[in-house]
Design a protein that fits this description.
Blueprint lengths: L7 H13 L3 H15 L2 H17 L7
InterPro entries: DUF6961 (IPR054234)
Amino acid sequence: MTLTLDQVPWGAASMLLRQHGERAASVAAARVEEMKRAGDADGVAMWKKIASCLTKLSPPDRLS
């Protein structure tokens, strides 16, 4: 199955929720910071999209 560029962050967010549950938002935030430290603007943008998708997939009180 091939994902479109618009679907990639949704797939990543779904996978993070399965793997990390309530910690998924924290994991995504940590990745944003890692990308910032590495100077990877594209990585920062992608992980911010993933974090945004997480908030839409799960109620805020379920993410930390």
